[in-house]
Amino acid sequence: MTGIDTRLIHAGEPEPRIEGAVSMPIFQSSTFDYRGEGSYYALRYIRLNNTPNHVALHAKLAAIEGAQAALVTASGMAAVSTTLISLLAAGDRVMAQDCLYGGTHDLMRIEFPRMNLGVDFVDGGNAASWRENLTARTRAIYVETISNPLMQVADLRAAVEFARAHGLISIIDNTFASPVNFRPAGLGFDLSIHSGTKYLNGHSDIVAGAIIGRADLIAQINRTLGHLGASLDPHACFLLHRGLKTLGVRVRYQNASALALARYLAAHPKVASVNYPGLENDPGHARARELFDGFGGMMSFELRGDVAAAEACLDHLTLPISAPSLGGVETLITRPVKTSHSGMPPTERERAGIREGLIRLSVGLEATEDLIADFARALEAC
Ligand code: PLP
In the β-sheet with 359-362, what is the strand arrangement from edge to edge? Predict the structure, then answer.
C-alpha cells in the first residue's frame, strides 16, 4: 500500500480521467439515465449517494483509512445518527464513553428514549468497569479517538477487544485525530465516523460527514441513509474531495504547532491546566504515543482565576477567531459550555469534568511563533 499522502491525492480518482480533467468535476445532476439497474438502490440519484462525486469520495476515504468501504453524509451528526439508527433495533443499547461531542451526547440522551434505544455511559479509560454496564441488549460500543472537549484518549485497544469478546459493533468517532494520525480499521474497529466539516475538508466552508469501515455494515447504513435522506450534495462532495488532498500537510503542521503551543501554555504561570495528549504528563499520553502518528491540533485548557479571566483572555487574542467548530486553516477558540456542550445538562457536564472556564482551541495554519506571541500578549493583559 502506498503512503497516506499518495492515497489522498490518487485513490478513488476516476480512471480514465473525465475528459482529461485533473480535478474531479462536479456532477450537478440529481438523476442519471436508466441503464437497466436491477434494484432501487442501484439507480443513480443524489439521495442514494452513488453519483460519480460520491463514488470517488467513498473510494478515497476507504483507502486513506485502510478500510473496506466508506460513505459520505450531509453532516457529521448525520453520520453519527444514521449509523446508530441503522444498527440498533428498539430495545437495543449502546455503551458509550461519558465524555463525547455534545451533539452525540444529546442524540443519545434526548432522541434515543423516543425510539426505545438505550445508552450506558462509561469511563472510556477504565475498561474494567465496562463489564458491569453490559446488558443482554448491548449491541455496540462507542468512543471518540480524542474526546471533545477534554482530549481524553479512551482505552481504544480494550474497546476493540471488549467488542469482539461480547459480539458488539465497535464504533469510533475519529474526527479529532483525522486519518493522518489514526486509522481505526488497523486496530480492528468496525466503523469510524467523521465530522467531515472539520479536518477532512479543512477550510470551514462546508458541513459534511463520513462513515468508514466494514463493507457489510456500510452497505446496511447506506440503505438507511437513503431512507433518511441525509446525503451529501455534489458541490459539497467536490469541496470535501478538494480539501482531502491537503489533509496530510495540514494535519502534520497542526500537530507540530499544537504541541509547541500546548508546551508554552502548560509552562505559563497563569494557566492552571492543559489537556493535550502530546504532553508527557497528560493521562492519555502513553496510549496516544503507542497508537497515533501525531497528537492532533486540538487542545483545551483552564486559566487560574474564574470565568471572567477566561473571557478576558479570549477578548485579548487577535489571531484565534472566537467560534465553535474546528479543524480548519484558521485557529478557532471557544468555551464549550457556551457552544459545543451548551445542550448538556450542567450536572452531567460537571460530572464529565467540563467546567465553565474551560477553553477549547483548534490550532490552524498560522505561523506557530505568531500564535504563541498572541497568547503571550493576551495572557499578559488578562
Ligand atoms: N463529532 C465530533 C467529534 C464533533 O466535534 C462534531 C461537531 O463539532 C460532530 C461529530 C458533528 O459534526 P457536524 O457538525 O459536521 O454535524
Answer: 271-275, 298-303, 359-362, 332-334, 321-322
